[in-house]
């Protein structure tokens, strides 16, 4: 229990029953919606719950609707089994041009003579089915999901019949998945650069597809570029290894034999070099950064892989490589198969931030091999991955205190996210309602940390040895598939059904509360041995602040750099977050002293500097402004960018807007959009203060 907060059941188990009725002029999806106050189903209509699409003829019979509300594809009639992409990377025009061929299999028997694919701001030139031109149209745009591509077939295929759909296309300036960098935006200023970020629903802005994690397909990549290419598949041995001398296009081939959802399609191209960081791993990055990246990652990558394999089962993707991207990459990492796309903030020169790699590696099992069926169940990807990551940390670093240390940091991130949304907000639930919503708007630490805490709770409830028996079973059962939270529950209970003792323990889980209760879950009793020293130092600063404010006598505490002797960067982070959590912030004088004594302003470790900047901004330290604006022009990772802008909004709103306008083209489109919402959505509130 959380003090002062009842942890009660709030909803009944939601049904999986969903149907759609296809009519002559519209497709209406009717979804059962749970009433939280009454245990019965009601029906409502909307997107996600209502889709209106122009159609020429009614489909035959009743058709089950997809369980993913964030796709316009009729993937419960057709499933993509293989995709071949043949694309030219045209840097001068900042677009991809070529074709995509989907091999689609009918999963109903004579019930659908139309194929609906997700598409968003893609210019389509032609569509063929089995090499023959077919009727097609882009339906009216439906925000935020795009314009469905409707393909009319000459006949109604039988069950298991396959069709090859070939689409000639090019991306446009409105593509939300791609970022293009000029030579001036790269480290050596010699060549342009591009990379993709397709999660959650952005693959559809590169090519029409079934853009849902509930569909998985194998991939072939045939990519032409004047610069080296990275993709989410195994590279052909004869791929070029350096930029073309005359700027002509060179062919790069990749194959992904493990079925993946469309959001794991990934491309990057630029002046990229590679180096070994393990027996089955490479790092790829700019030539000038290659040595520092190699040094940062080579000590731990294989250790992480071996620890993960001992916990689950052997790695299935062949190679595990890391692409360290330019600084505008919006995430800490993206778990693209074969090549994790990683933020350069991992490269801090002290090997203190490489646990990001443990997280992305864990996705090789959780998320990539076993996937959430929709973004409403995102915790199945990220909660499991965070759990595996922390088990890896414990194995590599030597004990569960390391896992709990990371979990304590995560708990602070969780409380921050709940505070940001509000503790009754839909997005603070473990299972959320995304009908008619953009999954990007729900992105936060909640699925990571609330999901982790749910799995941690189950482990503590039934014992680690028992949960360790379940882990490989779960991933083997759902290997190559997608599932929702109810599938997870069923799998867990079924596994232990013959174990009377464990079954009784599992019967005590309040599933409705864990799935649907907003706000914070019960806080576990974490091992604080690695954070106590940080807490004690923070307490000294809080007492120092209190005594100076009240005019009372000060004790013997005199801040010194030696206060942090022997600390890890994460212990410094815990200390700073403790200071951030003070009910009353430090005075400007004490905030300035904090940065000066512990040399926090100029550290290369952004995890540390960004948190200190938040403390200084809260304390109205005007001298911190140039440090904040400088960092906001150098780092595009949303974990740092969004909190820094929020702090700057309160300190100097005009400077925040000016900084954003100066750097908005540096940020990835996803980051740019989210910061714009933070900035301009906060304007009226700012005026009220």
UniProtKB/TrEMBL annotation:
Q: Which reaction is this enzyme known to catalyze?
A: an epoxide + H2O = an ethanediol
Which domain of life does this protein belong to?
A: Eukaryota
Keyword Nucleus listed? The answer is yes
Q: Where in the cell is it found?
A: Cytoplasm; Nucleus
Q: Where is the active site?
A: 360, 448
Coarsely, its chief localization is cytoplasm
Q: Where does a peptide bind?
A: 197-199, 330-335, 637-639
Boundaries of each Peptidase M1 leukotriene A4 hydrolase/aminopeptidase C-terminal domain copy?
Answer: 529-679
Q: Which EC number(s) are documented for this chain?
A: 3.3.2.10, 3.4.11.-
Example GO CC term: the record gives: nucleus
Binding site residues for Zn(2+)? 359, 363, 382
- How many cofactor units bind, and how? Binds 1 zinc ion per subunit.
| One Pfam family recorded for the sequence | Leuk-A4-hydro_C
Q: Which GO terms describe its molecular function?
A: aminopeptidase activity; epoxide hydrolase activity; metallopeptidase activity; zinc ion binding
Under the heading SUPFAM superfamilies, the entry gives: ARM repeat, Leukotriene A4 hydrolase N-terminal domain, Metalloproteases ('zincins'), catalytic domain
This molecule's function is given as: Aminopeptidase that preferentially cleaves di- and tripeptides. Also has low epoxide hydrolase activity (in vitro). Can hydrolyze the epoxide leukotriene LTA(4) but it forms preferentially 5,6-dihydroxy-7,9,11,14-eicosatetraenoic acid rather than the cytokine leukotriene B(4) as the product compared to the homologous mammalian enzyme (in vitro).
Member of which family?
Belongs to the peptidase M1 family.
UniProt-recorded name of the protein: Leukotriene A(4) hydrolase
- Tell me which species this is from: Exophiala dermatitidis (strain ATCC 34100 / CBS 525.76 / NIH/UT8656) (Black yeast)
